[in-house]
Amino acid sequence: MRPSPVAAAVLIALGTAVPAHAARAVPVPEHGIFLTVSGTDQTWIRGVLLDCGPTPPPGPHPQAAKACEALALANGDFDALADDPHACTKEYDPVKVRATGTYGGRAVDWRRTYPNACALDADTGYVFRF
Predict the structure, then answer these.
(1) 21-47 exposure pattern, b = at least 16 Cβ within 10 A, e = fewer
(2) What is the pLDDT of residues 82-126, one digit of tens each?
(3) What is the rounded average pLDDT of the residues 10-32?
(4) The pTM is what?
(5) What is the dihedral of CA 41, 42, 43, 46, to 10 degrees?
(6) Long-range pairs for 22-26: beta carbons < 8 A, 24 or more residues apart
(7) If you write DSSP's letter for every residue of 17-86 in order, what string do you get?
(8) 10 Å Cβ neighbour count for 122?
């Protein structure tokens, strides 16, 4: 599924590196979390909104229910997401991920760089599977 041109522009803007002092200027959705994954030097980017409200609606995230369940088990802490261990190659093709928005009434702005997409998948499970 390809995002609309407007959605793509928003996702590109969210994924663009900003100075630390300007990080608060990035719009934060009132409900849900914008999840983005990008390649080295922003050569590609994809993203989706994950809304884990009281009853997660069927939204654009293809694994919304499982992703919300994983976040609930981690109490909204992306660093505490349960691993989904599986074998990965040692290929170095970095991917950057970001989660920006709100979860459980708390602001979220989490970023991480992984050595490759498989390492991302093994570390974050369903949350970034889109």
Answers:
(1) eeeeeeeeeeebbbbbbbeeeeeebbb
(2) 998 999 999 999 999 999 999 999 999 999 999 999 999 999 999
(3) 49
(4) 0.74
(5) 150
(6) 23/109, 26/100, 26/109
(7) ---GGGGGGS---SSEEEEEEEEGGGS-EEEEEE--SSS----S-TTHHHHHHHHHHTTT-GGGPPP---
(8) 16
